[in-house]
Design goal:
The chain is α/β, with parallel strands linked by helices and 419 residues long. It contains 14 helices and 15 strands. The strands form 3 sheets. It has a 7-stranded parallel β-sheet with strand order 3-2-1-6-7-8-9, sandwiched between helices. The protein has a 6-stranded parallel β-sheet with strand order 12-11-10-13-14-15, with helices on both faces.
Length: 419
């Protein structure tokens, strides 16, 4: 059986890492029986077989935008920017401007689509008439183009007359959503979600629940509890004080969906005398505005920039006492699973896909709109709530995100649709 894991994005995003890890895990275990390829244009690493299709641009008259990357992906979301309203928070992605990918996909017995934005036309997949699995890392396959719908419920009724784009874009958005839902409803198609939160979104579009399987993202074995926090802190330049607690935020602080502002608000509510033992490390960089706010709060922080290698990420997790993931609207962040495998508890917001990854009080804490606040969760961490639980959190998490529960589940599904 030849299986193609198909994605437009092979970069540093969470979805891209999830696909590479799945491809690596599958290749290492099943290569003698089945052929697994990662089909995309991008960097090649060890551990998996990369197939890079030759792309050909569609005709100029069919392209409403000429702003393209060298890889022929839409630059800065391309022509959708012309239709977006000042709301700004909606990220729209059209179908790809490339053709010929169909020729590459014809070589596979089973297709597993991941982040397909900008890669090709949805109708091309349906014409192939092959067993197809769609893994949802965000809501793009459910909408007329946006990655997350936020409070908008338009995807439930066909994304008609979208309130967030100009009238001239309505037909294109409605058609794109219709083509996606038709593919997902096709007899040859199955759907994989990583959370019940996403499962509910799928069902709301009218897709029957029996077509949906829930499989977690795979986390490699090297994400583990090192049991040497002091050395990890030294690597990152932290001075050691046993009363200090280091909180870790991974994400774009400028993206309101990620909720970084909530962390600052929570810290501001904590007594100033207790803030001296709050340390914050951020994977990324802060704006001048946020740096001024941090100085006003009188807490120490470190901006870690961007990590390209997994060892640096593992050290950062193991230097931390808690990961904070206050996303307002999210599916299943890899960072929570990675942190848990490294023995780090997580604070997240209730009623999100992120909250499903946490056993409240056992491997993290949930804050609520009505009830326990983010500030109260942080105060619990300050008291050393999980200080002696890291080895257990790591051990239990590695079972949840290990090969048997993730890669093996995918192989079972591939063989089921390939009957």
């Amino acid at each position: 059986m030849n299986v193609g894991l198909v994605t437009a994005d092979n970069g540093d995003g969470g979805a891209a890492r999830a696909v590479r890890r799945l491809a690596t895990g599958l290749t290492q275990r099943v290569a003698k029986v089945d052929n697994i390829d990662l089909v995309c244009r991008g960097r090649e690493e060890s551990g998996y077989h990369l197939v890079q299709p030759k792309y050909k641009l569609q005709s100029q008259q069919n392209r409403p935008d000429k702003l393209l990357y060298e890889t022929f992906e839409i630059k800065a979301q391309g022509w959708w920017q012309k239709y977006i309203s000042p709301a700004g928070r909606y990220d729209f992605f059209s179908e790809g401007y490339t053709s010929d990918i169909k020729k590459t996909l014809e070589n596979y017995d089973v297709l597993n689509l991941f982040w397909y934005q900008t890669l090709g036309k949805i109708k091309e997949i349906k014409k192939l008439d092959k067993p197809t699995i769609i893994t949802l890392h965000d809501m793009w396959f459910l909408t007329g183009g946006c990655a997350y719908s936020y409070s908008c419920q338009g995807y439930r009724t066909g994304c008609k007359k979208c309130a967030y784009v100009a009238k001239r874009g309505h037909k294109k958005i409605e058609k794109q959503q219709k083509d996606k839902i038709e593919l997902m409803n096709d007899k040859n198609c199955k759907i994989v979600v990583t959370s019940d939160w996403m499962r509910a979104k799928v069902i709301e579009t009218g897709i029957e629940e029996h077509k949906i399987s829930k499989i977690a993202n795979h986390i490699p074995d090297n994400f583990c509890y090192i049991d040497n926090k002091e050395n990890c802190m030294k690597v990152l330049g932290w001075e050691i004080d046993k009363k200090d607690r280091i909180y870790y935020f991974v994400g774009n602080t400028a993206d309101k969906r990620k909720g970084f502002e909530q962390i600052l608000d929570a810290i501001a509510d904590i007594k100033e005398s207790e803030r001296t033992h709050i340390k914050l490390q951020i994977l990324g960089n802060l704006s001048v505005e946020y740096r001024l706010k941090m100085k006003a709060l009188r807490i120490e922080w470190k901006e870690l920039g961007s990590y390209k290698d997994e060892l640096s990420q593992i050290i950062a997790y193991n230097a931390s006492d808690c990961l904070i993931c206050p996303s307002l609207f999210d599916n299943s962040p890899n960072v929570i699973a990675e942190a848990q495998c490294c023995g780090v508890p997580t604070i997240a917001k209730e009623k999100t896909g992120a909250s499903e990854m946490i056993d409240d009080g056992k491997d993290g804490l949930l804050f609520k709109n009505q009830g326990i606040s983010l500030k109260e969760c942080m105060e619990d961490i300050q008291k050393g709530r999980f200080d002696n639980e890291k080895n257990r959190i790591s051990r239990e998490s590695k079972e949840k995100y290990g090969f048997e529960k993730t890669c093996e589940s995918y192989m079972k599904l591939y063989r089921e649709v390939h009957k």
